[in-house]
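Bumping with the actual sequence this time:
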Amino acid sequence: MAGTDTAQRKRPDQRIGSFVVIDELKGNAVARAFRARYRPQIGDAPLALDTDDIVVVRVLRDAAIRDPSQVNAFTREAELLTLIDHPCMVRGLTRGVTSGRIWMATEYVEGEELATLMLAARIEALRLKPEIALVIILDVLAGLSAAQGIADARGRPMGLIHRNVSPQSVVLDLRGRTHLADLGSAILSVREEPGDDVVGTHGYLAPEQARREPLTQGVDVYGAGILLFELLTGSRAFNVEGLSDASVIAAHAENHRASWPDDVDLPLDLKALVDQATADTPEDRPADAAALYALVEGLLEDPDDARERLALVVRDLVTSNPDRQAAPLLI
């Protein structure tokens, strides 16, 4: 089976469902990712795409196919993405099985991961303007709100919890729009409870995640609050470098978020908003992404101007590294 991955790399013109592969993108441990063109054949189910439109096709790796939990998570993610229709949330297109390979196709949006922007800022010892940080989080919350609000066929809220709001699950496009991706860790709070394992990215876990307590959509509010803290301060809310998993989990369980740096001069109402979003218990936070969105929106005077300025930063990141692998949504 290991030879299958090698063979795929040697055949960049291969077909996956209704798509013809262009090249391979940066993937992860679970799935490989490809840029592909929409080239339907006779008998293929039609999609809301034009011929030659570019998409991202993610294909489960061999090891993941042998793990039922990873197959289920991948399939769940593909299903959930098709239910969400919002410009700040990656759009799922279709999924299938080709020659025994499980795959999904999503829209292609070129840009850079938020993690890349944050790393570049730290290297240059720079901080984003508050309005830039706010518009990023505003769009993250818009996508989260759309995801949290999806309903089943009977119109009942599904109670989705993302569980992994982190810089790696956020992509900035060339127009300054921010997109939330990666629903592989999502659960439906009204129908299921998390297992014994702590799921999420170290540095962005809500205290109740680390404590293995029942979860609410306040988990995602906390993750957005941590992101906003880091965008405003240019420093990590939780320093997890060199710590054991147990130490990191303990720090999250006790909510040992960093204090505001003395040299960060921000309006008190903005600091208070971040402190509220990252409160120890979900009852002390805004109830969900929509509630936090309303509070953030009230602090941002001109989101369109902020997006235009963010777009300049993203384009600079892209053009400064012409040999980079593209970082579209969901890779």
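The tokens above came from a reply further down the thread. The mean pLDDT is 88.
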